Recover the amino acids of this structure.
């Protein structure tokens, strides 16, 4: 839902139009998992993101636990944490021998296209541990990539 500024919403109202498909990080904002990854902790967020400029206002009020659904929030936090861990592994692999920027999307596509494997392949480790170097993705002639096993 979006609206122009009026008396009820002096700064207007903007809502994400992909609400049901938004990233898990957005679904659980402003909560984070505690150190044992068992509880969601709400963090206070500043009212303003940059130098007091109104254009960077973040939230009209502080959040409370009742603003978030407990089970969905924990699930979204766990998934967001898993995805961040997975992406950090991908970044570490890429950064071992970084290639041209225009090769990165295909590299990511190869990794994500191979996230599901059949049991018959006898994978005992998650995909990021099984990525083998086929040829360097910085190879000038062909821009070849590492390939998931």
């Amino acid at each position: 839902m979006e609206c122009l500024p009026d008396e009820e919403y002096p700064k207007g109202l903007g809502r994400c139009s992909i609400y049901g498909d938004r990233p898990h990080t957005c679904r659980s904002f402003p909560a984070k998992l505690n150190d044992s990854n068992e509880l969601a902790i709400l963090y206070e967020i500043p009212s303003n993101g940059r130098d007091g400029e109104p254009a960077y206002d973040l939230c009209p009020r502080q959040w409370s636990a009742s603003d978030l659904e407990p089970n969905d929030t924990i699930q979204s936090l766990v998934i967001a944490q898993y995805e961040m861990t997975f992406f950090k592994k991908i970044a570490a692999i890429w950064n071992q021998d970084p290639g041209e920027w225009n090769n990165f999307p295909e590299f990511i596509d190869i990794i994500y296209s191979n996230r599901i494997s059949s049991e018959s392949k006898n994978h005992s480790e998650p995909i990021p541990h099984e990525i083998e170097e086929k040829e360097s993705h910085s190879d000038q002639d062909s821009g070849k990539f590492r390939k998931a096993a």
Remarks:
- The two ends are 45 Å apart (CA to CA).
- Confidence is low (pLDDT under 50) at residues 132-149.
